[in-house]
């Protein structure tokens, strides 16, 4: 008896497709089929195929077979620091990604991290770094190359903005070397947006220096301006500071190259040495001249640049080194004509007009005695206001000084009412002086012609006068007694110290 009939062989996947019968031949990949007797074994454990390339290369479909990407490698978790490497055709252009860093090498180009159009921006968020907080550092790996941080807007007229608009945080740029700000346009602007100040400060006891240094032959210049006002401070010559009224304005030059450098004025005249308080005189022939205090209670005119001087001198009372004023000389307290020493013989108080040249609070009044009078002789000194006719009116303040000794004789004033010693610039007053008695031996006082011509319309007094004599000798009245007589002689100089 023959064996059982074997049906034709059918081969199919478990889901029924594909399916084929009768099958007379099965082809298996080399190495996956083994035959023992009438048993055929197909090994499916290696169905994934053989990896392509070398160790650590990422696999990809290479024409239907596994391929390894030599320019796309990954070191697995077993490595000390897992890394994903992407290389271009040359190793000069590469990107390395690890849990701790991203390294980009653009070769001859600049590596770029960019976002697509429409994105709001690129957000870099760092974690905390101990007590110092989050840090974003730009350093060179070997410390030898110079690191650069470049913020650049790709647009032609782009603006770069660094701000801390949220909260009240500061923006601090800390440079161990120089901090350079460059601008390709006309200027580099430091501006306080809300109208405050831009200044240099030092956190320690070191000097705080705000420097302006030009490059090459350019002129360092400080331009101070508001919408309506402007002045320049510039240095275009060594050790010479110029103050100029902006473009095309007059220029003052302060030459500090030597002790004889001096100050040059817009009319090209130069003052070398003031030797004390110097007051500029205008209207003098021969150019600008300065009135120079000579240190001995007198002064002299000095032509700009140290030229020849005329003879007028200071002739008032100088009771201290800081404040003195010749009441009889208008308007500055300095006399533009020579003084004289006059023997003073009186029959009544003398009133001399003066117009105050500056606001002051008078502290003392005094006279300069060249030769002493009778022993015990004193002078009453006072200052009066002026009435509507230009005559003396009410006593404001007064004092008593000696006249029986030579030199400057001064005393502190007493006010009639609080504030009377405050006299005002541009206002006419009278100073008054009188001997305490008709002296046997009259003193010689420093005197001069008054420099003031008043506007009195009283025909008895006259329209021009040096002084007025009125009242009782030795008595300083609280109000002007009237019935004065105009005098055409020199009057004693009364000086004042003031604050």
Key attributes of the depicted protein:
7-stranded antiparallel β-sheet, mainly beta, single chain, 8-stranded antiparallel β-sheet, 499 residues, Jelly Rolls
Account of the protein in words:
The structure is a single chain. By secondary structure, the chain is mostly beta strands. Among the domains are: 221-266, no CATH class; 270-314, no CATH class; 340-498, Jelly Rolls (Sandwich), CATH 2.60.120. The chain is 0% helix and 32% strand. The chain is built from no helices and 33 strands. Strands 19, 20, 22, 25, 27, 29, 32 and 33 form an eight-stranded antiparallel beta sheet that branches. Strands 26-24-23-28-21-30-31 form a seven-stranded antiparallel beta sheet, with no helix packed on it. The protein is rod-shaped, with a radius of gyration of 51 Å.
CATH topology of one domain: Jelly Rolls
What's the helix count? 0
Q: Approximately how much helix is present in the residues?
A: under 10%
Please tell me the CATH architecture of one domain by its name: Sandwich
Q: What is the SS-derived class?
A: mainly beta
Largest sheet: 8 strands, antiparallel
Q: Which runs of at least 5 residues are low in confidence (pLDDT < 50)?
A: 276-288, 308-323, 452-465
Distance between the termini: 153 Å
Shape: rod-shaped
How much is the average pLDDT? 74
Q: Class of one domain in CATH?
A: Mainly Beta
The number of strands is: 33
DSSP strand content: 25-35%
Radius of gyration: 51 Å
